[in-house]
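Lab meeting, action items carried over

1. Structure of the four-component assembly. Owner: GW. Status: complete.
Input record:
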Amino acid sequence: MSLGYYFLLPVIFSFLTPYFKKLGSFTLRGSTILLMLILFLQTLAYTGVTLPQISEFSLKPPLGIAFILDGYSLLFLLIFTFSALIVSFYMVWFFKANKGRDEARFYVFFNMLIAGSIGMILSCDIFNLYIFFEITGICSYALSAYNKDKLGLESGIKYLIIGLIASIFIVFAIMLIYLQIGTVNLGLIAQRFGQIDPKISVLIVLMLFIGFGTKAELFPMNFWAPDIYQGSMASVNGLFSSVVAKAYLFVFFHLFYLFGLNSKYMLFVMVIGAITFLVSEFTALNQTNIKRLFAYSTLGQLGILFMALSTNSSATVSGALFHLTSHSISKLLIFLALGILIHKFKSAKIDILGNFKSGFLTIVLAIGFLSILGIPPFSGFVGKILILKGFALTQNYAAIAFILLVSIVEAVYFFRLTAMMLDKKRTKISVPIGFANYVVLSVLAVLIVLFGVYPSLLTHYTDLATNALLHPTNYLNYALGVGL
Amino acid sequence: MIGLLILFTFLAIITVALGAILSKDITQSVMLFMGVGLGSVVLFFIFQAPDVALTEAVIGTGLSTAVFLLGIMHTSQEEMES
Amino acid sequence: MNLKKVLPLKHILLSILSSALLLSVLGLLMQVKTNLYKNVGDIFLNLNMQTATANAVTSVVTFFRGIDTVGEVTVLFLATSGIALMLSDTQRTCEKVVKQESFILNVGSRLLLSVIVLFGVYIIIHGHLSPGGGFQGGVVIATAFLLLFLANPNMSLSHSILTLGESLSGVAYVLVALIGLFKMNILLGNFLPHPIGEIGELVSGGIIPVIYILVGIKVGSEMSVIVEYFSKEDYYKEVCDA
Amino acid sequence: MLEFFNSTQTIHTIIIIGSMCLFFIGFYGIATQKNLVKVLVSFDIMESALFLFFIGLHYQVGLVAPIVDSNLKTFTNMVDPVPQAMILTTIVIGLAVLALGLSFGIEYYKLTGRNDISKMNELRD
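Predicted assembly:
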């Protein structure tokens, strides 16, 4: 199959959505699940073939645009299509529980959010990447305003303005790149980036940093993220945290290593990541809204990822990619489980964690919390240990001490939440969980435990990804049309 | 000649843009913004980009302004003083 | 009238900041050296004879960078969906009230409608020969409907036809891309015959005019929907308030 | 004097200075304006400035538009078509985002009677 289907199939589905809607909500939900299943199975099929894979549009690169799949994008593709499949099952319960919502339009935005994120990680042309950036952006604005209440609209407007600022800087950077080296192909830019006048190159890097850093929720530009998370639905938060933020992070580091910025700007990104981690975890301590709390927690984890991914050492980067996968699964689990609670209690205050009675949800949420915190049998532990091991190999003990110290802060609120759930003295209300949700949440929880016990299941892919990220020779050959 | 024409068009655009930003009346600011678009159309035409000029005239100036005006019809017409 | 009220301190500081940034960016940009490499656009100009379109910009938009345009059409589609999600209110209970309409405006706008739509169609189908194309022509068609709404507030468009046009043209566009994959083994391949001798004629350029016509239908129907939502919004509000 | 104004060098200098002034006027607008519509207007001004910058720097005296007609039979001595195609795409995307933002603003105004972005602070702990 051609890689182009990752974008074209969701586009066809979205264009036909008005007719699926006429056939009834069963067709609508079923077709979305089918689409996501096709995409996931296609990705699984790609795990068995030799990488990189390429599919061209109109012309062969470097003149034309192509989608290239290498080890690095394969890992993200697995995460994205899996998360999308899970969320599409979850939404069946959601729309049964919330009647009278505009289901068709939600599915349009959902499909295109996934397609846009996948397009961003596959495209080998920076202007084409910008188009996918805008597609993902528009879908996220619309999804965060989907509730059409005060909070939702406010978050939609804020997200839109932030997105406009980011896109203007990216367009400026693309224009400067084209003016300097006359191309927008990533391979050619990577080859010629060193020859740009250093002053202009600093300007370009700054613009790209502001553009993608804003969207990837890096420290000075991430003030907006908790607001957006608070205003939108829990399932959408899960998507933002495990798909959209990760897609921007992918692009950030893809360009970072491709353009050879790692030697010059490594320390800078590391310090920014550390500050992100520190500030977010301390702010998370005194949050009373549960969505905000996990938004800050997401920012903190992204901070660790930024610290570890910028190091240029394969052990640390591999650990970081493991941690990223584990974080995606855990955050998806937490947000989907919280969605059930928020639907039941009609409130997002932190107290709802203490007031529900359901053994299943308690276990599942506890697994999610402890995995993010990094407690042994779960996958988050392996991720953190691998990162720390990588830092130890490069003798960066300051980073290890820093991560461990800030993790104590993290532990404070995660243990508080777990204790609140297990507190027998609070009044407990039983919460109904749909059948689909039992399946969805148990699959996620089982995966967390599985990757915690058998990390080798995942390390194969993270090693592939690390190799592709740090040594992009193969990718460059394909993007330049040499290896064809 | 071309250089002078470009210079004066730019001066006009900048003046109009400043007016659009500083004006207190939103309708006025949208109309002045249309002036920025029209100036851009002239410049695109001079820069030998008729496709962009047509697009800017129809989409960037025409429909944008129409959408803005229809939009502000039912939001507040003036900036609220805080 | 004191100065502080007209120009608060914050604004002065921000204007100083903007000017400082302006000067520093200008300082950097004035040193822009000419490009050392051949622009990819110059290579496209040389290649352009092969696509047999008179307008090089059109062949770049629809063919050389064709997937960009698929994405662009998708962005418009998503924005339309978002606007429809926001502004179509199913819970509105108030009755439609027939508004006073002016006979002269009504007849005049209907007369103009055909002319403007014809002009839009001209722009669309001559997209590969002269400036213009699907996006511009589509928007011109939408402005014709805007005129109709302004002249006659009771006017409403048939949403089923618009949805049909939008969906079918979008799907057809993607199918054109996929047929290229099956026939030419490359997505968006130009599978229709496009002899170079035909350059400048109306039927030339293979799939390029086909794509621009599909884009024109799609953009025209989407923009009409956007215009209708924005102008009807006001109408509903007035009616509901009364 | 007229020679001076007709050189590509001078024209490019004018374009850089003019479009960057326009860009930072828009920037100032975003930083100071509170009304949503005016913020969107400022964004559009910034975008227009970038378009002028990009198209303008690819123009050189003596080049013609990349369209052949009865007098012009080959694609030589023409301006670069790729920036024009890119700008065309960006203009359409700009309109899409702008219309979406306005529809959010209208809906928010219907709910609260405000469209002042500095007063949008319901989202807090």
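2. GW to write a short summary for the group page. Key points so far: Residues 2-118 of chain D form a domain with the Helix Hairpins fold (CATH 1.10.287.3510). The longest helix of chain D spans residues 81-112.
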